[in-house]
Write a structure and sequence with these properties.
Blueprint lengths: L33 H12 L3 H7 L7 H5 L3 H16 L3 H20 L18 H83 L4 H111 L5 H47 L6
Helix pairs in contact: 1-6, 2-6, 4-6, 4-7, 5-6, 6-7
Length: about 375
């Protein structure tokens, strides 16, 4: 029998077996079946010497040993849970969130519309479009530098996640060890309860056989100890439930971290360089397109000018030929001039003839007037 019914009050019990040091770094995240582990412990530890040693720390005449039974192990489980919570460094989370926010802002600057074709602009290749292209190139060069900085920070973040996983693995092993010790105390509590129940039944039978009523006081004390042991074992089962939740939670955190590392590798370590390469190619193609369209526009203007010059040359040649093939003074002009002169001569003769006739007529009229005057004043005719 593991229970000690003879010892008087002593100091607090200690955790049997001690706490093994956790292993150092574990790189691989391995799965863990806590239910299967519990069943294995039940099959190997029930009524084992190791559990008997823990049962022997219970002193039924010293209720303090029952009150503090498994306290150290339960406290370690609580501490381990606190470590899991405190391992989530808020400053690191804030830093990573800030990095991702910065990256999001950088990616928001990327405007695919700036790299699309805009056919209406190539008529201004040597004006505003050139300035616009230079502005786009400068913008995306700056964005590339910012992405490089984020890339370095994310690589550091990846390293921190891996380091966090190593710490989580250490915490996991510590929790499993504490959990194993806790299960041992639960099994010891259940074994102690059975032994105490059997001892109480024996003492009850002794009292009935001997008629010694003083045994009743002992039985009452034993029943009080039994009740406290049952309650204490139930408390340890509650602590076990907490451990059964925290241990898988640690594994979940490890797997989540590994997924984050995988995501960083795929999304940031692969995608970002590919994005930058694609961006560089897009900008180079844009520059080539601008240059090609500039040369095309220049060729088109040159062709238009050549065609226009050819047409002007032909028209000028025709005009020159027409001018050279004819007289400087047109026949029509000479004919008109001749008619004008002839008409002028004829008109002059007519005017002169009319003037001569008018003079003759005027002379006759003057003679008539003179004769009439002589008659009136009896002037002799001049002979």
């Amino acid at each position: 029998m593991g229970l000690d019914f003879t010892k008087t009050a002593t100091g607090n019990p200690t955790m049997a077996g001690g706490t093994p040091e956790p292993k150092n770094e574990i790189e691989v995240v391995e799965s863990y079946d806590i239910v299967a582990d519990r069943e294995q412990m039940n099959s190997t530890l029930v009524n084992s010497p190791e559990v008997d040693a823990i049962v022997s720390t219970i002193e039924v005449n010293n209720l303090e040993t029952i009150v503090t039974f498994g306290a150290e192990v339960a406290e370690e489980i609580s501490k381990a849970s606190d470590i899991v919570l405190n391992s989530m460094n808020m400053s690191q989370l804030d830093d990573s969130s800030e990095m991702l926010n910065t990256l999001a802002k950088i990616m928001d600057k990327f405007d695919v519309e700036e790299l699309k074709e805009n056919p209406g602009l190539f008529g201004k290749l040597f004006g505003n479009l050139r300035k616009q292209l230079d502005k786009i190139l400068a913008k995306y060069h700056t964005m590339g530098d910012e992405v490089d900085k984020i890339y370095v920070q994310l690589k550091q973040y990846e390293s921190e996640i891996k380091q966090s996983n190593r710490k989580l693995e250490q915490m996991f092993e510590a929790n499993v060890n504490y959990y194993h010790e806790l299960v041992k105390y639960i099994l010891a509590g259940e074994q102690g309860r059975r032994e105490l129940e059997a001892y109480i039944a024996q003492r009850q039978q002794n009292m009935e056989t001997t008629g010694d009523s003083s045994i009743q006081f002992e039985i009452t004390s034993l029943n009080q100890a039994l009740m406290m042991l049952e309650q204490r074992t139930q408390d340890l089962r509650t602590a076990e439930s907490v451990a059964m939740q925290s241990i898988p939670m640690i594994k979940t955190m490890e797997f989540t971290n590994m997924n984050l590392v995988r995501k960083i590798n795929s999304a940031f370590i692969i995608t970002l360089p590919v994005f930058k390469q694609a961006l560089a190619q897009a900008l180079m193609l844009k520059r080539q397109k601008v240059q090609a369209d500039a040369m095309s526009a220049l060729d088109e203007k040159t062709n238009e000018m050549l065609i226009k010059n050819a047409r002007n040359t032909v028209e000028q040649s025709k005009a020159t030929a027409r001018m050279a093939s004819g007289s400087s003074i047109k026949i029509e002009t000479l004919e008109t001039t001749w008619k004008t002169i002839v008409n002028g001569i004829d008109e002059t003769k007519q005017i002169q003839e009319n003037a001569r006739k008018q003079r003759v007529e005027d002379q006759k009229r003057l003679e008539t007037i003179k004769q009439e005057f002589s008659k009136m004043y009896h002037m002799p005719d001049k002979k």
